[in-house]
Amino acid sequence: MNATGYAIAGPSLALIKYWGKKSASENTPATGSLAVTLAGLESRTKVAFDDRDSVLVNGEEQPASRFTPFLDSLRSELGLGDQGIAVSSRNNFPTAAGLASSSSGFAALAGAVAALAGRDEPPARLSALARLGSGSATRPVYGGFTVFDAGARAAEPERDETFWPDFRVILCVVREAAKATSSRAGMESSRQTSPYYGPWVESSPALLAQAREALGDRDWNRLGPLIRQSYLRMFGTMFSAEPPLIYWQPESLGLIQALEALRREGFTAWETMDAGPQVKVFCPAAEAEALTAELDRRVPGLRFLTAAPGPGLRTWRVE
Ligand code: PMV
User: Fold this and answer.
1) How much distance in Å is there from the Cα of 319 to the middle of ligand 1?
2) Is 14 near ligand 1, meaning CB less than 6 Å away?
3) Closest ligand 1 atom, CA of 29?
4) Is the CB of 197 under 6 A from ligand 1?
5) Of 289, 249, 283, 307, nearest to 104 (Cα)?
6) Which of 12, 13, 16, 17 to mutate to test the pocket of ligand 1 (most atoms within 8 A of CB)?
7) Residue with CA nearest ligand 1 atom 10
8) Is the CB of 230 under 6 A from ligand 1?
9) What separation in Å is there between the alpha carbon of 204 and the centre of ligand 1?
């Protein structure tokens, strides 16, 4: 029987953002990121050798052009010659809408192909392989909190998923549809056209260093404002690009303003956003339920998911 490789990965949500590439050919980041791997949200991927490449995501056939370069890199790195690979992947959360499905999807694909190749690769190597698909995919190879440094080829574990049991994320799903501009294209346009791109890159090491310290102390009051500065500076480079890149929807801003008010009312809740309209809110576990109820009341009609820090990439092979 044909061997099969399997992998499961959770999405990696950045507290401090990666936006812009140091090297496009190497796919290394211009800014270091600090992220958390989420529990309960999953990309599950199954791969097998076949006559030609094919990719199904949530049961739908994908254009091969999007995946062939990554599969070619994996084949050459893992010594698989020119064998075709049939990929089937499922996400149990909205795909390509800024819920970090490319991080979990590419990490799971790298892990599943390595398992299929019968290679017991160390996590640092799997992280470097995942980078060839998507920069953010380096991070969920590890569970808990991870850092992907500027210019690095792989992410590193920072704090494991048991480090901060009180840590939660509320994902506010503003739109379920896939985004119009990929993060890859958006980053490149920010780099080429935004006058704020240079200052964004230059100011990001200090944000990352301070955030690592605040995380080490589990200090919401120091970490929160850094999370907010990071995503708003990142969006500054998008708003000021030519043409401007605006991922936000009215509800996104509604949530940002509701959170501003809720902080004044005593909640500990700090939002971030990625290349899409969704708003993700970091908060203590004890506040998650009341906070979700308040957000639902103030910005009605959205879907909310809550997640805790979760485990890293799991892979296995079936003969
Ligand atoms: O590596 P990509 O293409 O998934 O880019 C990730 C970019 C952001 O999600 C906006 C930020 C981040 O650090 O995850």
Assistant:
1) 35
2) yes
3) 1
4) no
5) 307
6) 17
7) 274
8) no
9) 15
What is the Å distance from ligand 1's center to 60 Cα? 23
Per-position pLDDT tens, the chain of length 319: 589 999 999 999 999 999 999 999 999 999 999 999 999 999 999 999 999 999 999 999 998 888 899 999 999 999 999 999 999 999 988 665 567 678 999 999 999 999 999 988 999 999 999 999 999 999 999 999 999 999 999 999 999 999 999 999 999 999 887 667 889 999 999 999 999 999 999 999 999 999 999 999 999 999 999 999 999 999 999 999 999 999 999 999 999 999 999 999 999 999 999 999 999 999 999 999 999 999 999 999 999 999 999 999 999 999 8
